[in-house]
Specification:
Blueprint (H helix, E strand, L loop, with lengths): L4 E2 L3 H14 L3 H14 L17 E2 H5 L3 H11 L5 H16 L8 H7 L1
Length: about 120
């Protein structure tokens, strides 16, 4: 469903890296948190193709970890008609949406208390 190598938009990637600087949470873990925050907020991908120009290109397992199956099942449930490329676009859109709610936390304690 999702490709084996994935990346995000540069602006989203920069926000993930800033969050790592503040909290120590790595970009792949904060991307997982952001994705699920977005799903919980009822955000839905509208099919707008974003430029996924970030330099952090990681394999699917590194991005998703043990949440991989759940992430792919949620994407398949919400967007059954999407192909592999479009599915990556939807995942990236959810990460971008979700990072907005966590990007301004300055400490790990502050971040964890908001979850």
């Amino acid at each position: 469903m999702l490709p084996n190598r994935m990346n995000l938009a540069r602006t989203t990637e920069e926000q993930l890296k800033k969050l790592k600087g503040y909290t120590g949470v790595t970009p792949n873990v904060s991307a997982r948190i952001a994705f699920f925050r977005s799903i919980e907020s009822d955000f839905r991908y509208q099919g707008r193709e974003a430029k996924l120009d970030g330099s952090l290109v990681l394999d699917k397992y590194t991005w998703l970890g043990e949440t991989g199956r759940v992430t792919e099942l949620l994407l398949k449930m919400y967007y059954p008609e999407l192909d592999t490329k479009e599915c990556q676009q939807a995942w990236a859109a959810h990460v971008e949406d979700g990072i907005a709610s966590i990007r301004n936390h300055r400490t790990l304690v502050n971040l964890s208390s908001s979850l």
